[in-house]
Amino acid sequence: MEQKKYWKGLEELHNTDAHQEIVKNEFSEELPFESEGLLNATTPRRDFLKYLGFTTAAAAIAASCETPVKKAIPYVNKPEEITPGVANYYASSYAIDGEYVPVVVKTREGRPIKMEGNTLSTITQGATSARVQGAVLSLYDTARLRFPSIGGTETTWAELDKQVGAALAGLGGAPVVLLSATLLSPSTKKVIGEFLAKYPNSRHVVYDAVSYSGILQANEASYGKRVVPSYHFENAKSIVSLGADFIGTWLNPVEYARQFAQTRKINAQKPEMSKLFAFESHMSLTGANADERYTHKPSETGAVALALLAAVGGSVTAPAIADKRVADGIKKAAESLKANAGKALVVSGSNDVNVQIIVNAINNIVGANGTTIDFAAPSNYRQGIDSDMTKLVSDMNAGSIGAVLVYGANPAYDYFESQKFAEGLKKVKLAVSFNDRNDETTELCKYIAPDHHFLESWNDAEGRTGYYSFGQPTILPLFKTRAIQDTLLTWSGNATTWADYLKNEWVSKLGGQEAWDKALQDGVVEPATAPALGGASFAGDIAGAAAKINSAKKGGGKLELVLYEKVAIGSGKLANNPWLQEMPDPITRSTWGNYACISNKLAKTYSTQLGDDYEINVEKKVLKVKSNGKEIELPLLIVPGIHPEVIAIAVGYGRGANVGRAAAGIGKNAYPFVSFNGQTFDYFTTDAAADATGAKETVALTQTHNSYEGRPIVKETTLEEFIKNPLEVNEDRRELKKFGPDFRKDATLYPNFSYPGIKWGMSIDLNTCFGCGACTIACQAENNVSVVGKEEVAKAHEMHWIRIDRYFSGDEDNPEVVFQPMLCQHCDNAPCENVCPVGATNHSSEGINQMAYNRCIGTRYCANNCPYKVRRLNWRDWNGADSFENNLYDVADMNDNLTRMVLNPDVVVRSRGVMEKCSFCVQRLQEAKLDAKKAGHPMKDGAAKTACQQACGADAIVFGNINDKNSEIYKIRNEQQVDRMYYVLEETHVLPSISYLAKIRNKDAAPKAEKAPAHKEEAHHA
Amino acid sequence: MYRRVSILLRKHFVSVLILCASIVIPFSSVKAADPAKGKALFQTNCASCHNVHKKLTGPALAGVEDRWPDKKLLHQWIHNSASVLASGDKYANELFNQYNKTAMTAFPSLSNEDIDDILAYVKNEEKNTPGGKTAVADPNANETADKGNDNSLLFGIITLILAVVALILMQINSNLNKLAGDKEGVPTADPVPFYKNKAYLALIILVLFMVGGYLTIQGAIGLGRQKDYMPEQPIFYSHKVHAGINQINCLYCHAGAEKSKHAMIPSENICMNCHKAIKEYSGPELTTAEGKKIDGTAEIAKLYDYVGWDPEAGKYTKPGRPIEWTKIHNLPDHVYFNHSQHVVAGQQQCQTCHGAITEMDEVHQFSDLSMGWCINCHRTTKVQFADNNYYSIFEKLHQDIKDKKIDSVTVEMVGGTECQKCHY
């Protein structure tokens, strides 16, 4: 098969001079000195001797200090379940903003340090996301509120209870409103209900920063049920996403990505997979993983949905779609949906009720109800109705609200008219916040009654109707906080503690203490047998919805603006999480901040200097984006595959000064661009304009940091070709045969090492890696990987041990995307090992490329000689691991004694000047081996899991002992995936321990001619 | 805090002696009942309340078989003391009253054979005097062994003598040269005194540089190493009294050694399991390494103060405070060490690394805990290759044993000296 050309950015696609320059100088690093150079100094030699003398003396003094006396302080009364050095695991639930992920929390010596998915949950089946992995760090957030306060001064809970009690009593019948984000906890809702029942006219308003009100209201109009149904992507053969990023951010992406992955697992024996069509305005994670992807303006969303409805046979007149490519795509998608009726699913990210009604109509026609959409056990992931919120704000401004109690919501930041909300709040007699930090809304409240972090608290969660998950304290409360449920119980005069309340609820529901204990141990309670999927009869007003869509204003501006959520940051609730801030966005590969994403075509209109080499320079031109009468200034970022007339901006940034050091001042708040259409919030505008301001701002991208110089490292084929000739994708491997029958032995002069016991190996399936980044954060949490900050990321100093490279291929306006997780390949013939002058990196008898930090002297030879560019030097002292004080470089409070509690005690922190990289989670391997040794049996396959493997919801990563013929990894390489399996840069004979499975796209085989796009191919080192 | 004391009882043969003693003594009195097994059972089940020679919570067990009228009854008593008391047995009831009506824990799980093993062990122990020292090495033997092995002083003296001789010979040579020159009328330069002779000076500087460099490097390697470190602890806790004389199993207090990377310093509630009953120290006299006398009872009182126990009232009267022990065995942060790996999987004795702990009143660091020390042991120690099924995957090594190419497998042969076994 002809090798496709992959490019990580436009500069590489067009192979500009600037790109060639940066490739040439990849390893050069300017010295971090501000002086003009030692040689130009007036007395360089004398100064040098002075420095030498001083540092020698200083080092001698520092080193000859007495060894410090260390204390060992045992418990007075050791809790029975704690053995220092041995981890305890507790089941809990991640339920922030309505996302539902049952988890298992690993604690060491009473400190939660890691979260994994709970495999007993049939909904998520052990899957996690980057945000779930990162949430444990938020427990130790230094910006968390540490005590209750009144008017900004610390108070006691008793005093707060007294004052709030008096204030509530003095409302004189004015309504009390509890304003919260979506809550999944049935018992919490009961507590809220009992509290509100004490006050006449009071109500509970649910407000979601990123709203799904459109789906809820459309389902009410179509089926008479105001619910979000449960989606079953695993049953779908044909999926159409109309701007719904269900793999990255839509509703409960952990669940959907896992389901979708089940339809993408493929081998030559069973060459079948689902087909995903994406119609969207900007490049989302789902679009990037789609088999066929089409772009349109956000104002055309309704038209696309209508055209699709018409094409599948709905009784509407199809509006004209101007773009022929999109029109063809709709036809294709409709054919696929019809051909797979009963195994088809259409989802839409639109928050417009009418669009969602049309989507319901399509799903009804293609037989999705009861097969891929389940109304029998609907989901509770989002419950906010937008008009409830707008009504509340106008009521507040009218002065008719007595008290507002805010819990988990932050409208002063993320409500589109935040100013109006803030003014309204001033007119409310009593404003209480239960939020965990002094966020934008909490700042405006007089009474602050901070809630526990969810890992400190009891809770339950009902993600899907009838499917429960629980939360239990995994650590004593760090601060003088109190569970909101305890607070509300106190205020409603109920003397029961929340822990007892919850227990009583469940003991009576489950029928006994024993059942409750088991529920807490398992973490989930689910129906014994999954109930049959239930459909619903469609009764929506298609004609009415179509009329409204057609009459909606199309906007006068040349440009349109679309708001989106970044995979790591989401709505912005976890914004003060340095891990998530530094996680490269799957598509743009940028960290720390938001920006205006535009196409290359549009970028060229702002400056002739912009264009192909633009991704190389970290200083980006700043655009002033205007829309809706609001304007913000953001650096522009060229993103291939975005519609040429669209600007996309991520929400969740531009946080207030008090939300924490990592989030404050990063990016700009895009929520003001949201508008209310009378029914729901719109997350796009049609009248955008943008001008270059002349200023420049840094955007810290990571993808441009390494170059493979065009070498073929990604392999892919189409489903059609794979069925025809499964081996074709690996055609180039036949070249290796010329060395002899056994490439490993025959292609080298070196002796062949044997691996007498265990030989670790990993397989990564490019077909089910969606690029979500959960593995990156899981690795960071497991291995104490440092956070370096925006400035250092811009200098290519990021420390992630596993990165997910994103490559584009094909046409720059409609590119195809492929994600490739890249980590140390643990080569059996590792180039890094030969060049280390001090033997700090060497090979183990289990095939691990070992790194002995204390031997490393930081020459960086190994990094320069690594073909995979996976080695990371500690350019600064990120962790305070140096012997010398005041060397610490910490931009995000990662070294506060509180934050350091998250560190994994089985892994050291690395000091300055030391190289590090993926260790295959050797601490986990050693532990699993020790367990097997102690039990006296050989290691079982699956007993040792790497952090990335465990975090991956799609099971794209398989790890194990390849010497064990019964292991999954052995079977994948030698039985199941012989055709797709390949090693990256295999021809170099470095013999990596990680194999990849080629990506397969379910699209029509491209004509051969299209495979060589018109660009300067010859300029590349092929 | 630093108190370095020269410890004479060192080297491996002390532990070897102890091992020999503990093997030889039991075998000298082989009977149907197995006192060696009884010892283990005694330490697991009985030692927290009973001692052979002394009263603890329960009576001293020496002569227990003679005191009980009937061995069957004794079995019954151990299985379930309440049933014997209920039967109205006179001796049993007297005993019960004598010990403040503290009921003896029932041991239904012990078989009659087990109990006989324990009794055999007790009988065996009766012969030893209280506080019996089963294995005391002759310190002088150790010293001679040390001297016999260490020839560096001898070599040093010889080198020095040879150097002086060489110097004298060179002086003589130059003088003779001068004389010969004078005689033949060849004018020679005035002799330069040796302290001004550049060749000598260069030589001296070179020697000083080498010696200084050697010492500096040795000093640098030794930085942070604390062999023989014996800090003063907040309570004079004697391992000799507990683990030696009273033979409490190491794992009774350091329970983590079997389960965790940490052996665990016991929490105070573990101390109180016994010290609720043991209020006074009545063993041999305790002295610190400096010779200061220690009042054992006062040290127990310190524990009561920490834990908040009122021995008069027999209850806790104030909240406990943790004891801040000074940590003796410190490994650098970049070393991962797991006790359970060595104790359970490796079947190592505590004494291998910690020395004759049962002989130490105050614990000192027995080994230097250097990497070379670890590696040397990994090179020579054999793994449980045949016994532990985990190693069944090493097919080639098993074949080599079968083929008699090797007779055993060391830790090193299964990768035990690789960097990432301890550094990650």
Automatic annotation (TrEMBL), chain A:
Gene3D superfamilies xref list: 2.40.40.20, 3.30.70.20, 3.40.50.740, Formate dehydrogenase/DMSO reductase
PANTHER family per record: GLUTAMATE SYNTHASE [NADPH] SMALL CHAIN (PTHR42783), GLUTAMATE SYNTHASE [NADPH] SMALL CHAIN-RELATED (PTHR42783:SF3)
**A Pfam family recorded for this sequence:** Fer4_11
User: InterPro entries per the record?
Assistant: 4Fe4S_Fe-S-bd, TAT_var_transloc_signal_dom
**What positions does the domain 4Fe-4S ferredoxin-type occupy?**
760-790, 815-846, 847-876
- For this entry, the protein name equals Quinol:cytochrome c oxidoreductase iron-sulfur protein
What taxonomic ancestry is recorded? Bacteria, Pseudomonadati, Bacteroidota, Chitinophagia, Chitinophagales
Q: Which organism is it from?
A: Chitinophaga arvensicola
Q: Which NCBIfam families match?
A: MoCo_extend_TAT (TIGR04519)
From TrEMBL, chain B:
Organism superkingdom: Bacteria
| Cell membrane keyword on record | no
Q: Name one GO molecular function term.
A: heme binding
A Pfam match is: Cytochrom_C
Instruction: List the source organism.
Output: Chitinophaga arvensicola
Protein name according to UniProt: Cytochrome c7
Alphabetic keyword roster: Heme, Iron, Membrane, Metal-binding, Signal, Transmembrane, Transmembrane helix
Q: Which residues cross the membrane?
A: 152-170, 199-217
InterPro entries from the entry?
Answer: Cyt_c-like_dom (IPR009056), Cyt_c-like_dom_sf (IPR036909), Multihaem_cyt_sf (IPR036280)
